[in-house]
Write a structure and sequence with these properties.
Two copies of one chain form a homodimer.
Chain A lengths: L2 H18 L4 H11 L5 E2 H8 L3 H14 L2 E5 L6 E5 L3 H30 L6 H29 L2 H12 L1
Antiparallel strand pairs in A: 1-3, 2-3
Helix pairs in contact in A: 1-2, 2-4, 3-4, 5-6
Chain A binds a DNA duplex through helix 4.
Chain lengths: 168, 168
DNA sequence: CTGAATTTTCAAAATATATTGAAAATTACA
DNA sequence: TGTAATTTTCAATATATTTTGAAAATTCAG
């Protein structure tokens, strides 16, 4: 396999995985392209390599910057903006996880809490059963959140120790 | 909030969450409806309560059964099939996780391994950097997989102990 | 300032995904 | 078995999402 082929497959695979988990294909592909690149790339280079429009490239880059996993890089003597991806896998994996949790999971947890409280005093058998179901989901997600927060706060060394403890 | 309102909000919330994480809205809503129901429901009842077509209801139910989080329930003297959701939250959450990992993550891990191996002997600076990036992702996902497998294998008591260790 | 280079926006078009509904297949009771 | 109830399938349709591309806004060197 030639290097260019390998990179292309990496980009395609990343795009497909993103789609299946609710991350836009172009966004995932731009991320992969930048990960696979040694040097910073301009919007034009990204457009050309991925064969996507300027608008799409621009919006994808902006989203990755918003996620905090791609940075702007100024190149002396060039007016264009260049972009580089955060190369530390653990760092960007966590940033994506934190962002998605905040944007998608947290509001749901709020609603679950509301529903759980609103049905707390329901005396009907049906109402009590429903309350219990919601409460169960709520408790589990809160436990998972506690763990996630601990993991996200850890430094690399702590994390390895914690995960080691988990396995043995 | 009336019980019916609370249930409806639960169904809507669940549907929205599913969509954002790559699970079909109808599938998520059928799951929520069954979770919120004390008694088994027939396809007709599901169609009626969610205002969806027979085809959609049928396919959604089948997918939930394939996931292993909804069961068929025969009711004596009735020819219709009835359905109930697995009410043990930990159980169905794990089943969904295992299923998605197998269907979507495992193939990606295979490809990452291939790419990593194919670029191993590349002597160019660019090739080595790319190899390292892919290798890093591969190693992290393998570590996460090991942990996930351990977690999925645990019984409830083991799991609590492990998670407790992780937090302290 | 001026104006060319660059970035951003967003309505329209293209694409992908979900849903419908009726016909075909299957089931199980008489 | 015959037949009516039920389930399944899938082409057609509807809906949602993504992508384009050109116009507007912004930036910055001269």
């Amino acid at each position: 396999m030639k290097l260019d082929e390998a990179k292309q497959q990496f980009i395609d695979t990343w795009g497909a995985l993103g789609s299946e988990w609710g991350i836009n294909k172009s966004v995932a592909q731009v991320h992969a392209l930048l990960l696979a690149s040694t040097k910073p790339l301009s919007t034009d280079e990204i457009m050309e390599k991925l064969v996507i429009s300027r608008g799409n490239a621009n919006m994808s880059i902006r989203q990755l910057i918003e996620y905090g996993i791609v940075y702007k890089k100024h190149i002396a003597g060039d007016r264009k903006e260049y972009f580089v991806a955060e190369k530390d896998v653990l760092k960007w994996a966590m940033k994506i996880a934190v962002m998605r949790k905040k944007k998608e999971l947290d509001p749901v947890m709020e609603i679950l809490k509301d529903i759980s409280e609103a049905t707390e005093d329901d005396k009907t058998k049906d109402g009590q059963a429903f309350h219990q179901t919601v409460k169960d989901i709520q408790v589990l997600t809160e436990q998972l959140e506690t763990i996630a927060n601990k993991v996200f706060q850890s430094n690399r060394a702590d994390l390895l120790i914690k995960l080691f403890k988990l396995i043995v």
